[in-house]
């Protein structure tokens, strides 16, 4: 769960999400991503560092440049985590039968 939470935190930023979206279509180096997104190479590098720490992307040295790609298996793992989360069944409140002063949950005000 911790690895999925780290990935979700990394994806919660719009710039990082956009970078990941670009990398899903094609491997890019920092300079190319910066030009496409209209931001500095330094900004792209900082965002890629967060994505790398979350294991969502990896770099591969190709000549002088490092090209980045999405770890699709990690993305699938996050997807499965969210799918499982969306399938959790809501339980009925067990304290509804108690007097209001004894309720210690969402039913306190009911």
Structure report:
- This protein has helices at residues 2-11, 14-25, 30-37, 41-53, 72-86; strands at residues 28-29, 57-62, 65-70.
- The model has no long low-confidence stretch (mean pLDDT 91).
- The chain is elongated.
- It has a single domain, classed as Orthogonal Bundle (Arc Repressor Mutant, subunit A), CATH 1.10.10.
- The chain has 110 residues and is of the alpha+beta class.
- 53% of the residues lie in helices and 13% in strands.
- It has a 3-stranded antiparallel β-sheet.
- The chain contains 5 helices and 3 strands, in the order ααβααββα.
- It starts with a helix and ends in a 24-residue tail after the last helix.
Any idea what the radius of gyration is? 21 Å
Quickly give the CATH architecture. Answer: Orthogonal Bundle
Strand order of the largest sheet: 1-3-2
End-to-end C-alpha gap: 34 Å
CATH class: Mainly Alpha
Count of separate DSSP helical elements: 5
> Can you tell me the residue ranges where pLDDT is under 50 for at least 5 consecutive residues?
none
Number of strands: 3
> What spatial form do the alpha-carbon principal axes imply?
elongated
Classify the helix fraction into a percent range: 40-55%
H and E string: HHEHHEEH
| Structural class by sheet pairing and helices | alpha+beta
Beta-strand proportion: 5-15%
Quaternary organisation of the protein chains: single chain
Give the CATH superfamily: Winged helix-like DNA-binding domain superfamily/Winged helix DNA-binding domain
How many domains comprise the coordinates?
A: 1
């Amino acid at each position: 769960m911790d690895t999925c939470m780290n990935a979700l935190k990394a994806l919660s930023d719009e710039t990082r999400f956009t970078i990941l979206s670009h990398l899903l279509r094609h491997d890019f180096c920092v300079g190319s991503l910066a030009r496409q997104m209209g931001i500095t190479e330094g900004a792209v590098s900082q965002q890629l560092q967060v994505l790398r720490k979350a294991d969502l992307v990896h770099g591969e040295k190709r000549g002088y440049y490092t090209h980045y790609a999405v770890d699709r298996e990690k993305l699938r793992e996050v997807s499965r985590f969210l799918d499982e989360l969306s399938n959790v069944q809501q339980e009925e409140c067990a304290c509804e039968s108690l007097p209001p002063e004894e309720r210690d949950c969402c039913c306190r005000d009911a």
